[in-house]
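Hello support,

Our group uses your service weekly, and this is the first time we've seen a run hang past the timeout. The protein is Peptidase inhibitor family I36 protein. I'm not sure whether the cause is the sequence or the server load. Input pasted verbatim:
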Amino acid sequence: MRFSTRIAAVASTVALAGGGMLATAGTAQAAKSDCPKTYLCSWATTNFSGLPGKVAYDNSNLRQYYKFANSRSMYNNGASCSVRVWAGTNYTGSSVVFKIGYQLHDTSNSVLRNGAGSNRWC
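Update from on-call engineer: The timeout came from a worker crash unrelated to the input. Re-ran successfully.
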């Protein structure tokens, strides 16, 4: 009986410790560094928190992607050229050019304050 009680206590402790590790790992935050090379990335939060949405090609309708339609921060991690991002779909409305490495921590004071609509590289 005493042996079974010890095994149960050890098993409980291991389960709690393991559960604690899982909970800690799940709360880790993504960052700008989570934007892969050659991509334009967008976050639905300011300052690149959370997981980014990402595109690597021209898109006439970024509004179909939640993190671009609700963009609050953006980063061009492209390898060879700039990317122009328009507020409207089909390359319409105001736009901003993101040179390689350009980042926008908060879109609220830019032409992208209501999200990104389309993009074209180089």
